[in-house]
Design a protein that fits this description.
This protein has 194 residues and is of the alpha+beta class. Helices cover 41% and strands 26% of the residues. It has a six-stranded antiparallel beta sheet. The protein starts with 5 loop residues before the first strand and ends with a strand.
Length: 194
Amino acid sequence: MTKEAKIYGNWEDLPASAGGTISHSRMETDSRQLAEYWRRCSLSSDFWARYTALSSPEFSVGRPVRRDAVESTLSYLLNELFENTAKFSGGPVAAVVYESWLFPDRMAFQVTNHIEPARRDGFVQLIEELLGNDPDELYFKRLEENAETDQKGSGLGYLTLMKDYKVRFGFRFTPVAEGSIAVDVQAHIHVKEI
């Protein structure tokens, strides 16, 4: 099995520590626990959103940054990331890793989970559609499709974040073991968008 990673979208090799950043945070958990105890998704996202919002005075965008706006935006963004890891993880590796990097004018978040190889192509197809179309047009198209078909995994959460908060996403797929592909999802947001 080839271990070569495939990258889509806005991918950035982020520092392994806080060098050049306001802060760097990391948490590890288990996808089965997130799925079984669903409330842990919102608890994790709310905790990290509030924790990050405390850095608001350190951002440098030429104006004060409101903590409540940072917390609200990040709670939504991180909840989407944590819930996706709970819903779509599978295979022999259950590890989930959350990391965040705060820079003076932007933030980057990365969640890593694992999927079975058979799910990769469908996810890549969704990603290519999300990244290759106008978020506003695709958002309304997906709303109509969801109303008609009640489809799961439509990417509507990603589209909302791209449309309303100008979040830029990057995705990396890396085979790590027999029956397991690591999926890294990065979300980049400029503080001025909050």
